[in-house]
Amino acid sequence: MAKKSMVEREKKRQKLVQQYAAKRAALKEVATDPNASMEDRFKANLKLAELPRNSSATRLHNRCQLTGRPKAYYRKLQLSRIMLRELGSNGHIPGMVKSSW
Predict the structure, then answer these.
(1) 58 burial level (CB within 10 Å; 0-12, 13-18, 19+)
(2) Which of 34, 65, 90, 91 is most buried, by CB atoms within 10 Å?
(3) Cα–Cα distance between 16 and 60 in angstroms, integer?
(4) Contact 64, 84 (CB under 8 A)
């Protein structure tokens, strides 16, 4: 089980990313537009820098939905390898059977 503070920090980041997504996308569009004036592009970059750092999508880290484990994460199932194996062994994941020989 991951530390609760880390899981909560990640939830806070996800909330900030959703909150600022539209504003950040609009500013990035202006900042990278080659047809815009140099002043407008510079102002857009300054406004981007003023936004909270945690509102950037690159700051997010995938975590297991059940345990909060940050490593060995399966995107499709949103689970860590440990929980995937445990749930598969218990028969909670349809079509998955634990291998034994």
Answers:
(1) exposed
(2) 65
(3) 10
(4) no
Q: 43: burial class by Cβ within 10 Å (0-12, 13-18, 19+)?
A: middle
Encode burial over 5-33: b for 16+ CB neighbours within 10 A, e otherwise. eebeebeebeebbeebeeebeebeeebee
CB 72 within 8 A of CB 66: no
Domains of the chain: 1-61 (1.10.287.1480), 65-101 (no CATH)
91: left (phi over 0), alpha (psi -120 to 50) or beta: left
End-to-end CA separation in angstroms for the chain = 30
pLDDT at 98: 76
Amino acid at the residue 37: S
CA distance 68 to 87: 15
**pLDDT of 51-83, one tens digit each?**
999 999 999 999 999 999 999 999 999 999 999
